[in-house]
Amino acid sequence: MRSAAEEADRLTALAETLLVFSRAEGGRVPLHRWQARLDELLQAACPALAARASAAGVDVRVVPYGVTAFADAVLVRQAVENVVGNAPGHTPRGGQVRVSATRDGDTVRLTVKDTGTGFDPAFLPSAIDPFARGPAEKAGPGQGAGLGLAIVRATAEAHGGRAAAANRAEGGARVTLFLHPTR
């Protein structure tokens, strides 16, 4: 039953991702913005994912900063779920995933960082491209369609920003959405 539930969750996430792409007009995702508390949004996005991560021995936490933004909270939440959903699979038992939102002037920065294996250096330049799959994802069926980080990028760009994927100097990966929610 657990395997069937996990597969259903994966198919639901894939359907939601494909729906976002199908709704994109001229390469831009349509937005439905309202004032959102991003720490609350992040807290809401993480519990189901944190339960799966906990079963794998990975600690997922939101670092609250009280940041608000005029943004499409549904798309932002989906983008964060895509990143947080992947991180525990690349983080060893005892590792950590941290999710935060900060503001620097007009720019809101949503960051997911982990203490895992990081990105394969050869894959890193194309990590946020649609249908890009790293070596681990290519290894077997059911390992992802290569759309998660592309949704992150599309969400950031729809908010006038950008997305970035990087390896952390101390080990692990970092994915950041830079949003300009007032544009």
Distance between the termini: 45 Å
Number of helices: 6
What strand line-up does the widest sheet have? 2-4-5-7-6
Measured as a percent range, the helix fraction is 25-40%
CATH architecture identity:
2-Layer Sandwich
Main beta sheet: strand number and arrangement?
5 strands, mixed
The unreliable regions are 138-142
Compute the average pLDDT. 80
Over all CA atoms, what is the radius of gyration? 15 Å
Strand content: 15-25%
- What's the number of structural domains? 1
Shape estimate: globular
**CATH homologous superfamily name?**
Histidine kinase-like ATPase, C-terminal domain
CATH C-level class: Alpha Beta
Give the structural class.
alpha+beta
Number of strands: 7
Please trace the helix and strand order, writing H or E for each element.
HEHHEEHEEHHEE
